[in-house]
Write a structure and sequence with these properties.
The structure is a homodimer of 259-residue chains. With 259 residues, chain A is of the alpha+beta class. Chain A contains ten helices and nine strands. Chain A binds a DNA duplex (30 and 30 nucleotides) through helix 3 and helix 10.
Chain lengths: 259, 259
Amino acid sequence: MAGFSRFLAVLRLFDETASAWTVPVMSDALGVPSSTVYRTVRDLVAAGFLEAANDGAYRLGPAFIEYDRLLRLTDPLVAAGRAALHEVVLQARTPCVALLSRLYNDQVMCVADEAARETPFRSSYERGRPMPLAQGATSKVILAHLPARQLNKLIGGPKDPRAAQHGALRRELVDIRKRGYCSTASEIDPGLAGIAAPVIVREAGIVASLSLVANDSMLDESQRRRLVLLVVSAASLVTEALAHTRNPPSTQARSRLVQ
Amino acid sequence: MAGFSRFLAVLRLFDETASAWTVPVMSDALGVPSSTVYRTVRDLVAAGFLEAANDGAYRLGPAFIEYDRLLRLTDPLVAAGRAALHEVVLQARTPCVALLSRLYNDQVMCVADEAARETPFRSSYERGRPMPLAQGATSKVILAHLPARQLNKLIGGPKDPRAAQHGALRRELVDIRKRGYCSTASEIDPGLAGIAAPVIVREAGIVASLSLVANDSMLDESQRRRLVLLVVSAASLVTEALAHTRNPPSTQARSRLVQ
DNA sequence: GTCAATATTCTCATTTTGTGAGAAATGAAT
DNA sequence: ATTCATTTCTCACAAAATGAGAATATTGAC
């Protein structure tokens, strides 16, 4: 391990349950001499990615807040999505949370969320939290619209030992793609239902989903149909907006996008 | 330039007005061969700090969203502040924005904000946006509570050429510290007033301010007094919460904290 | 104040790693 | 098939990170 990976390794130590680290402890955890860790930490502090807490401990630094704002302002998906989410929670006329989510490595991550007023519950999907790939309407819609090759990498191709278990999932995904949306209940949070529709802009390498989370017990059939329509139309509005913000899909490097 | 600074230099290219860069353009802007930039970009993409857009361009990546959430959950100031801001905008009973801000390099940055319902305006202070040090109640409260040495570094010591101009500011800061809060109008946004109170926890190296932004024309004297009380008491609540979350301020490394 | 303890920085010989110029490869569009 | 821009690769070289330990700086306790 060396160079950039040293910095990544230090940052990756920090998570919800371990939010402050001292140099000796990092040194132990990483198996790297403390003099090296001191240098790494000093650079990260200078850059604002870490900052000194008390007792010689360090925590994540404010640079992440700054870059998060930049991304919020400039990322086409997030920018287009935030306005749409606002509309969705307004028009839903029921306690709910609206989410915009995307693929992130081999997980799904929400990149924007908005709750309706007086919404008494929270969704497990929250901005910045990686979530499982194969559960919940939000994730399944994304899976359903991945290119075959990429899907195989993620859930294992036909010769994967657990291919049998994936059979049902794959059939469900085909169905979702046909239908144009996905509706689930209690797959992630007990008692909560999810309704999700795809936001796909291939030329931009964008594969995302717009979803609504509401109390399952408060949804009768007509209500559910109304919300499905709301989510589907909001998702296509976002798709439209993204398709038009695009620079002309002119030259090369298309493959990189789809990754 | 080399090593870590190469990565920082690439990330620093991105801002509100330049949100997508191609490798050749970066290479030009940085004066670094494109083969090197390609390697740097590849590493940043692998880490999620950049991602491929279309046309061979790159934009900021989703890792910032992930780390921002971690920080939101684990940073003591942000965690303690968010609850307080929520209370403040509820009890303000007027359109307003509540902010929690801190020192960030030689600027002031908001780390948490919340708007009251139906607030028709926005404050220039917004989460993650660096703001000037010497304007606005939010910033001045922070300046007023900085250790003398640090203040001198920021606004220039007695022998600074522009020392004369700082005389008035320094007197104002002394006054703010005595008073325990700061109230300004139209210093940042025309027509908006700011009311700020300090959140100081020296042992933790925390120097921050909690502030409220409202329409100046809607504030009569009694209203203003009420809001000052609200802000001051919310700020001391946050201070209390932080003082207690502290690990025993036992061993060393106190100096690093104050930076 | 002195002292002990710990965090942090510094030094330097060694080795690894990044660097840079150009060639080669990739993949999409014509 | 060919063209074009993007991206990766190669390799000799220079530069930077590494690690062990010493030196320094701070702090809390006495």
